[in-house]
Design brief:
There is one protein chain. The chain is an alpha/beta fold and about 300 residues long. The chain has a single domain, classed as TIM Barrel, CATH 3.20.20.30. Helix content is about 45%, strand content about 20%. The strands form three sheets. Strands 1, 9, 10, 11 and 12 form a five-stranded parallel beta sheet that branches. Helix 1 links the parallel strand 2 and strand 3. The radius of gyration is 18 Å and the shape is globular.
Length: about 300
C-alpha cells in the first residue's frame, strides 16, 4: 500500500483556497509522497481546475480528484475537462467520480437521485472510453452519446469510482480502474469492497483494481482525545445515508471508530491493517488534534513521510 497525501482542507472542515491546494501539492512532491488527492465539494471550488494548476507546477507526483459528482455533469463534458486537466498534469491525473448523496443532488441541485448504480453504469460506459481517446456510440436509459472530442497532447486518464455499497462496487470493478473509498475501515474493505471489486474486474477481464482508502489520520499522545476530536470534526458524515449504511456493514456506529488515531506506533499498526485488508493506496485526511494545529499536522505528516511511499 502506497501512502499519498491529502490536499486542501475541505475534507477536514478547514476550507482553504485553490492556491493552498497548489502549494500543498508542491510541498507533497518535495516531501517525497508519490501521489496526492483533493476532494471535490459541490459547495466549494472546482477541484479539477485547482489540480490543473498544481499539475503545471509539479513534475513527478501523481494527482487525484475525488469525488466529482456525476449527475450534474454530462460524461462527455467531464471527460473533456479531465482530459484537459490531464495535459497540465503531464499524464499524472486520476479522476474519481461518484453519485454523491441524495441531499446534494436532489436537495441542492434539484436533480432526481434515481437509480444511482444504473446511472453510474451508463456514465462509465461513456466517460471511460472517451478518456482513452476513443469515440463513443452509446444509447441507454440516461445517456445517448455519439462521437467524441480531441484534446491535443492528451493521454489516457485513470478513472476510479466512489463505491461503498455492493451494487456500486460491482459497477466500479466492471467499468473502471477501481475504487476510492471514504471512511471504509478494514473490516468492510476485507469482507465486502475488495472481494466484490476484484470479482467484478475479473469477470470483465480487467486488471487487478486499485483500492484507494480515504480515512482521517492523526498522530497524538491521547487516542481518546483524538477520537473525540474526530467525532466533532467529521460529525456531518453521520447524517448521510450512504455512510450510515457503510458503518452498519462495518459494525460501527460513528466516524470515530474508523479513524486512524493514536501514537506513531498505533497509527502504523492501523495503517498496516488497512494494507492487509486490500487497500492499495492510502489517502490520509490529516487533521489536527489539540491547540497547536501546525505542530499536530506536522507530526502526522512526518510519520507518513517516514513510513515511505510503500507501507
Amino acid at each position: 500500500m502506497r501512502i499519498s497525501m491529502n490536499l486542501g482542507g475541505d475534507a477536514i472542515a478547514r476550507p482553504g483556497t485553490p492556491a493552498d491546494i497548489v502549494a500543498e501539492a508542491i510541498q507533497a512532491e518535495q516531501d517525497g509522497f508519490p501521489a496526492a488527492w483533493t476532494v471535490h465539494f459541490t459547495r466549494a471550488a472546482d477541484a479539477l481546475t485547482s489540480i490543473a494548476v498544481a499539475g503545471s507546477r509539479t513534475r513527478r507526483i501523481e494527482l487525484g480528484v475525488g469525488i466529482v459528482p456525476s449527475y450534474p455533469r454530462h460524461p462527455l463534458a467531464l471527460a473533456q475537462q479531465a482530459a484537459t486537466t490531464g495535459v497540465f498534469c503531464g499524464g499524472r491525473l486520476t479522476l474519481g467520480v461518484g453519485v454523491s448523496h441524495k441531499p446534494v443532488i436532489e436537495g441542492l441541485l434539484g436533480i432526481p437521485y434515481a437509480s444511482p448504480a444504473a446511472h453510474m453504469r451508463e456514465y462509465l460506459q461513456v466517460l471511460v472510453p472517451l478518456l482513452q481517446g476513443e469515440e463513443v456510440s452509446f444509447a441507454g436509459q440516461f445517456y445517448t452519446v455519439n462521437g467524441g472530442f480531441a484534446v491535443a497532447g492528451a493521454t489516457p486518464v485513470s478513472v476510479v469510482v466512489g463505491a461503498l455499497g455492493p451494487k456500486m462496487v460491482d459497477v466500479a470493478g466492471e467499468f473502471s480502474d477501481g475504487t476510492v473509498t471514504w471512511l471504509a475501515g478494514p473490516r468492510g474493505l476485507e469482507a465486502d469492497i475488495v472481494p466484490g471489486l476484484s470479482r467484478a474486474a475479473a469477470r470483465a477481464g480487467r486488471p487487478a483494481p486499485r483500492v484507494i482508502a480515504g480515512v482521517p489520520v492523526a498522530v497524538c499522545h491521547d487516542p481518546e482525545q483524538g477520537r473525540t476530536q474526530v467525532a466533532e470534526t467529521f460529525a456531518r458524515y453521520g447524517g448521510l445515508e450512504n455512510y450510515r449504511n457503510l458503518f452498519a456493514r462495518e459494525g460501527i456506529s460513528s466516524v470515530a471508530e474508523v479513524a486512524v488515531v493514536g501514537t506513531e506506533a498505533d497509527v502504523e499498526k492501523q495503517l498496516r491493517r488497512l494494507a492487509e485488508a486490500g487497500a492499495t493506496e492510502l489517502w490520509p485526511a490529516v487533521f489536527p488534534i489539540g491547540d497547536d494545529i501546525p505542530a499536530s499536522m506536522r507530526r502526522t505528516r512526518t510519520l507518513l513521510a517516514e513510513l515511505g511511499p510503500e507501507l
